[in-house]
Design a protein that fits this description.
By secondary structure, the chain is α/β, with parallel strands linked by helices. It has six helices and 15 strands.
């Protein structure tokens, strides 16, 4: 909405603001074009401010814009326009994973959308994959991994701090109701990885080089290790360890800088603020250890000391 779309004070009684009806249920019987109890809704006001809320029968959304009963949304169109009791109109949509991560309750530092997408792509997380993750954190990365592996895949997450697990698990379940494909182990991955024949290992740890040996033992040949680190000195330590291990190749590091643009009829310009450095992504492929033949011994005879008398 543009700033001049101010519906406050207008009489909206009897007006249908819900927008077009959905096309009906999808192949799995779920009508994703309409809200249901338990869904997350993202409300957007006329100034572009966002409010994330879980819908419940008999519940309501409260803000300085007024009250909006959840029953007005449940069963109605996603992408509809809904008026509060104070006459303000809100657009209601489903939050993307990026929206949810930005607004969700958190404990440890989260990985944001610009890095989540690249982690999934650069680690080549595929449907049916078995993924080991270290650092459950606030559950953002775990949620992205679960969505990527699909119903046939599995994610095994190691977390050393048991106090963060309940909140992180609740965050995951807000997006993915069925978490049966997720196994959370409270323990130190540096002590070893219990799972075998793992497709991918994702490390969100301050000292991932200490897990390189365990990751190499757990990964299948051709599997991928990925690490997310905030500083380049940590990246250097990890890269040297991966190269010295001998079981990894194609060790590469990259970072993502994200800049938005403001596009209007009168002007096109980059946003004043951008999401610059947040972390480095390092990937490596598990390979058969390369055989390096020893250098042949020097077969040239050593120069014998001359016994000839020195010339005058």
């Amino acid at each position: 909405m543009t700033d001049d779309q101010d519906f406050a004070g207008q009489d909206l009684t009897g007006q249908d603001l819900s927008g077009p009806s959905s096309d009906g249920p999808s192949s799995d019987g779920v009508d994703r074009g309409r809200f249901a109890a338990g869904d997350l809704a993202l409300f957007i006001d006329r100034k572009g401010r966002t409010y994330q809320h879980a819908l419940a029968d008999g519940g309501s959304f409260h803000s300085h814009l007024g009250e909006l009963p959840h029953d007005k949304l449940i069963g109605e169109a996603v992408g509809g326009w809904y008026a509060t009791n104070r006459g303000h109109v809100l657009l209601a949509i489903r939050p993307t994973l990026g929206d949810y991560v930005r607004l969700m309750p958190r404990g440890p530092q989260v990985i944001y959308a610009k890095d989540l997408g690249n982690i999934v792509a650069m680690a080549d997380i595929f449907p049916g994959a078995t993924v080991v993750e270290a650092g459950f954190g606030s559950g953002a990365l775990t949620t992205a991994l679960l969505r990527a592996v699909g119903p046939q895949g599995r994610v095994h997450s190691y977390e050393i701090n048991p106090s963060v697990v309940p909140k992180a698990l609740a965050n995951v379940q807000s997006v993915i109701k069925d978490t049966s494909r997720l196994q959370v182990t409270v323990g130190d991955i540096f002590d070893g990885i219990a799972e075998a024949a793992v497709d991918r290992v994702i490390l969100d740890l301050p000292e991932p080089w200490r897990a390189v040996d365990a990751a190499a033992d757990a990964l299948i040949s051709g599997g991928i290790l990925l690490s997310f680190l905030p500083t380049i000195l940590q990246v250097q330590e990890l890269t040297l360890t991966l190269n010295d291990d001998g079981r990894f190749a194609r060790v590469e590091t990259a970072e993502t800088l994200l800049r938005g643009w403001n596009v209007t009829r009168r002007s096109v310009r980059p946003a004043h603020r951008m999401v610059a450095h947040s972390g480095f992504i390092t990937t490596a492929v598990r390979c058969v250890p390369r055989y390096v033949a020893p250098r042949p011994a020097d077969t040239e005879p050593a120069d014998a000391e001359s016994t000839e008398p020195a010339e005058d």
